[in-house]
Amino acid sequence: MRNAIITAVSSALALPFLTPGALAGSLLPKEECQRTLGQQHLPGRVLNIDTQLGLVHVATDITPLALYFPPESIRELKAGDPIVVHLSYSLGCGGGRVTSGE
């Protein structure tokens, strides 16, 4: 079995709750934006993959994760693969628009 390492942003944890346009708001200056906060490394196991949509479901000891990646970047992943998800975030650095679905 292969080992996989995935780097993601913690906003991926909220994937089911976000829709296009929710992170629009005040942005911080570029130097503040580049500060990375809340880093975590979560070992787990790939539960399932949707290579057409780019979704990877991962079981970890803390919580199940649903993560989005460009579909071509996850084509080699298989259900059952051991994986490490690296999470971090920066505040006020939104470049796109995401809505909360409200």
The arrangement of helices and strands along the chain is EEHEEEEE
Overall morphology: globular
| Alpha-carbon distance between the two ends | 42 Å
Radius of gyration: 15 Å
Structural class: mainly beta
Low-confidence stretches: 7-26
Give the strand order, joined by hyphens, for the main sheet: 1-6-3-4-5
Mean of all residue-level pLDDT scores = 74
Summed up, the helix count is 1
Percent of sequence in beta strands: 35-45%
Strand segment tally: 7
Q: Main β-sheet, in a few words?
A: 5 strands, mixed
Helix content: under 10%
SSE arrangement:
Elements: E1 4-9, E2 19-20, H1 30-33, E3 37-50, E4 55-60, E5 65-68, E6 82-89, E7 98-99
How would you characterize the overall build of this protein?
The longest helix has 4 residues, at 30-33. By secondary structure, the chain is mainly beta. Helix content is 4%, strand content 41%. Residues 7-26 have low confidence and may be disordered.
